[in-house]
Design brief:
The structure holds 2 protein chains of 2 kinds. By secondary structure, chain A is mainly alpha-helical. Chain A has 8 helices and 9 strands. In chain B, strand 5 and strand 6 form a beta hairpin. The chains are: A mainly alpha, B mainly alpha.
């Protein structure tokens, strides 16, 4: 395969910009740049001290979202005898808490976090914080992993378990479609006591402060949701401790995405760099083996050559020796033979004289 | 007899013994208790050492009940003044170890002795945890005793309590005293009486015993003495009789208590600012008008002198000077009188009264910390500048008295034809029909509550002030603007916190009913105010 110059430059540029984007993301999440939420984002202020538990908000929510009718009618307040949570067919529920034998009612629904945990847990981007407030859910991309349900610190997203073929996650939409038409969210519009007001989040915080200042004996000096989990679009003020009405006070003020941004920011590095690194390490280790093998082969060859040389010499020596010995043996044998011949001859010579003497 | 039968019988015997012992223990436990719990628990924990065992919960009334025939000297020693010190077996505190030994020797010693005599006895030697346990199951019913004006009067008028000397008619000196630092003795000075707490505070100090110590040593010793003299009507000597929440309700209350005799004024002219202007001889003539303060009336409607005179019975301005002084913790006179958050100040106390059921319907919906009164409602002595202020005290008092007398405090009434009988609230009718608001009935109900006391009538003298409970933020008038003039029909997207019409109506009606304790109609009974559309 051949790579053209144009193609190469294209890839190179793409890689650079991707690196730049991921670096910028990391800096935003982990660095000292602080995301203060979208400006002019909208929200709802729930004044717990005003709520009378009439369930008109539940009814309106059911109506505007075309949800199936519940078993017990909305004007049946016996439902409040049990603590409920949101479920597939109820995006909002009102719970009653008896504090010092006086009932206190609290509405529960998606808080529409400024930096939502559900969105940071979702790997297909089915959740998105829209600049005007709502945390929107896109059913078309949802894979049904339900990580959002686990991630949510307020226990809000529900799942259509009874739908076998196309189940979806359900939660309050902050009536985004109605808001676009210039209408108020269903629950806000129907609340007879104005325990819910919809408006600019900054303005709502001002209104909440004003109420707390005006009636210091009525309210706890805290706006729940102003800072919890990095702030939420849904804000609460209350006449009783929030922990007594089932609202978590252990959440801290760090937004959920920030808690995971550090490890997640490392992912591009791991994904991009590790293959190169590991391949390099592999290549190096491979080369090392190869070199070692070559060196070994060389060493073996030279050792063998040396041994051959020695052997040759030895063989030569041995041959020489053998030749010498052979020569010597021949000489010896010859000598012996000569000597024997000489002796025989002498003996013959000697026999004759003796006989003469006799 | 088979083994099985013996076993069965022995089980029955064990069950019987257990039941008897539980009942017996139960009977012992109940002495000194009432339905609510015990009022006699004294927690014994020595200070100044390093305790290795938990505190002892000592039940005092249980001990006095089981030592019925003996007097206090069984456990308490008498001091130099021949009065019991209610420390246990000592008159002064020693150091940690000595104190501990005092308790161990005497408590366990007595228990052992009683055991050897064959009577029921408490934990003996070696049973450390029988006393040193933190039994959390013991319910407390202890409550501070409120020595109110009724109780004070019962002591003041008691024949058994004699005056300190023949020259003095009243018996105040039996309890009240001043401390002479030179002779280190208490002396009675007539006309200088004050609340015990002014000197006897929360903790013992070098010269002064704590309120707790003094209340027991002085009160109980006196009750014991009278008991010994066989006086029939004498005060209690057991914990529960003073301190049990339920028994406190049974303490006899005198309906109309006469005023305490401490030469206090009936009325006082509060003119500190004017007096200062007079003294400084400056040309500043216009200061705030004096207040003619009806001391007598306030005395009767407050719990005790300490409600206002929190540190001494001197006049307010002696500590709270105009510019603030160390003596008055730098709280200037103006603040001392007008601080809404304080219960000692005039305005603060009045604001507290506004939170009573009869008043809270309207007043709880008004912003706290805002003084709704006009200055001249209290500062109403009609002199325009300091030159008109009489210099001698008697004529000042006379001036105050005439100002108080000329105040018109008449019940507030409206002509029925000026008050609409019924108001139809139909601006919002949608799911429900229009609501028929029984306007006149509500006005009458409010009037009857308002006219119950003088504070209500006095501060609602301006004719349409009461109307402003509902018709707020608009000028006083017989025909206030309609709610819809300010509260929009629907909540708007750009809210400024002002409720929409539906929120305003429900907030005011339901809020008022809730605060005034009107249970019907319930907040969620929609159709009782407006019928459902057919």
């Amino acid at each position: 395969m051949s790579i053209s110059r144009r193609k190469f430059l294209g890839w190179f540029g793409g890689g650079l910009s991707a690196a730049a984007v991921s670096a910028a993301d990391t800096a935003m999440a982990g660095g000292n740049h602080h995301f203060k939420g979208h400006p002019d984002t909208m929200g709802v202020l729930h004044d717990i001290s005003r709520c009378i538990g009439c369930r008109k908000c539940e009814e309106a929510c059911n109506r505007v979202n075309d949800l199936p009718k519940p078993e017990k009618a909305f004007d049946d307040l016996s439902v409040l005898n049990q603590k409920r949570r949101t479920h597939a067919n109820a995006y909002t529920v009102v719970n009653r808490f008896d504090i010092d034998s006086k009932p206190v009612f609290v509405k529960k629904q998606c808080n529409h976090c400024m930096e939502p945990a559900c969105a940071s847990a979702c790997f297909v981007k089915a959740f998105q914080k829209t600049p005007n407030g709502p945390v929107a859910y896109d059913e078309s991309v949802c894979v049904g992993c339900r990580y959002c349900m686990i991630a949510c610190p307020f226990n809000i997203p529900a799942y259509e378990y009874d739908d076998a073929f196309s189940p979806a996650v359900t939660k309050c939409t902050l009536c985004a479609p109605r808001i676009q038409k210039g209408q108020l969210p269903g629950c806000v519009e129907s609340c007879p006591k104005e325990a819910l007001i919809y408006g600019n989040r900054k303005q709502l915080i001002k209104i909440a402060r004003e109420r707390i200042n005006k009636y210091p004996n009525r309210y706890i000096d805290h706006i729940y949701g102003e800072h919890e989990m990095g702030g939420t679009s849904w804000l609460y003020i209350s006449n009783v401790d929030f922990s007594k009405v089932g609202m978590r006070e252990d959440l801290g003020i760090t937004p959920a995405p920030q808690l995971t941004s550090g490890p997640l920011a490392a992912v591009p590095i791991v994904v991009g760099l590790w293959p190169v690194l590991l391949t390099g390490i592999y290549a190096i280790s491979q080369r090392k083996d190869k070199v070692a093998a070559e060196e070994q082969a060389d060493a073996v060859a030279s050792a063998k050559a040396e041994a051959d040389e020695v052997m040759k010499k030895q063989i030569a020596n041995v041959k020489k020796q053998a030749a010498k010995e052979k020569e010597a043996a021949i000489k010896k044998e010859v000598k012996i033979a000569l000597e024997a011949a000489a002796k025989e001859a002498e003996e013959k010579n000697a026999e004759t004289p003796e006989k003469k003497e006799e | 007899m088979s083994f099985k039968k013996i076993f069965q019988r022995s089980i029955w015997v064990v069950i019987f013994l257990l039941t008897v012992s539980v009942l017996y223990l139960g009977a012992l436990e109940t002495t000194g208790t009432t339905e609510n719990g015990r009022a006699d628990i004294i927690q014994i924990q020595m200070t100044g050492g390093n305790p290795q065992m938990p505190a002892v919960n000592f039940f005092h009334d249980m001990h006095t009940a089981s030592l019925e025939n003996q007097d206090c000297s069984t456990c308490h020693l008498k001091g130099e003044d021949k009065q019991y010190s209610f420390k246990f077996m000592r008159t002064v505190d020693f150091d940690y170890n000595v104190n501990m030994t005092v308790y161990h020797e005497n408590c366990i010693g007595c228990h052992n002795r009683m055991k050897s005599e064959g009577t029921y006895a408490g934990p003996q030697t070696g049973k450390c945890r029988d006393c040193h346990n933190q039994d959390a199951n013991v319910a407390q019913s202890w409550n501070d005793l409120d020595f109110d004006r009724s109780l004070h009067y019962r002591h003041e008028s008691a024949q058994a309590i004699k005056p300190v000397s023949e020259k003095i008619k009243d018996n105040c000196g039996s309890c009240n005293h001043e401390y002479d630092k030179k002779t280190r003795k208490t002396v009675y000075v007539q006309g200088k009486e004050g609340a015990c707490q002014y000197c006897h505070q929360d903790k013992d100090s070098k010269d002064v015993r704590s309120m707790k110590t003094v209340a027991h040593e002085s009160c109980v010793n006196c009750h014991l003495k009278l008991k010994a003299k066989r006086v029939i009507k004498t005060g209690p000597t057991e914990c529960k009789d003073c301190h049990d929440v339920n028994l406190q309700k049974e303490i006899k209350q005198i309906e109309s208590v006469p005023r305490m005799k401490r030469s206090q004024p009936d009325v006082a002219l509060m003119a500190t600012a004017m007096m200062k202007a007079v003294k400084s001889k400056t040309k500043i003539k216009s200061t705030i008008r004096p207040v003619a303060f009806n001391h007598k009336k306030h005395e009767l409607s407050s719990q005790s002198c300490q409600t206002c005179h929190h540190a001494s019975l001197e006049r307010c301005s002696s500590c709270h000077t105009i510019s603030g002084d160390k003596k008055g913790q730098f709280i200037p006179l103006e603040k001392a009188m007008h601080e809404v958050k304080s219960t000692k100040s005039c305005v603060g106390c009045h604001a507290k009264a506004q939170m009573k059921k009869d008043c809270a319907g309207c007043h709880s919906q008004m912003a706290a910390g805002k003084n709704t009164n006009k200055c001249n409602q209290c500062h109403h002595v009609d002199i325009k500048d300091s030159e008109e202020l009489p210099s001698n005290t008697d004529s000042q008092v006379r001036m105050a008295k005439s100002a108080v007398d000329t105040r018109k405090i008449s019940s507030l009434m409206y002509e029925s034809k000026t008050v609409p009988e019924m108001v139809l609230i139909d601006d919002l009718a949608n799911e429900y029909q229009a609501a028929e608001f029984p306007h006149q009935k509500v006005v009458k109900a409010l009037l009857s509550r308002l006219n119950k006391n003088t504070m209500g009538t006095y501060f609602h003298q301006d004719k349409y002030v009461m109307c402003q409970g509902c018709h707020h933020n608009s000028p006083q008038s017989a025909s206030p603007p309609k709610c819809i003039s300010c509260h929009g029909k629907t909540q708007t997207m750009s809210t400024d916190g002002r409720p929409g019409l539906m929120g305003a109506y429900h907030g005011q009606c339901i809020g008022c009913h809730e605060k005034m304790g009107i249970e019907k109609p319930a907040a969620t009974a929609c159709i009782e105010c407006h019928k459902k559309k057919p």
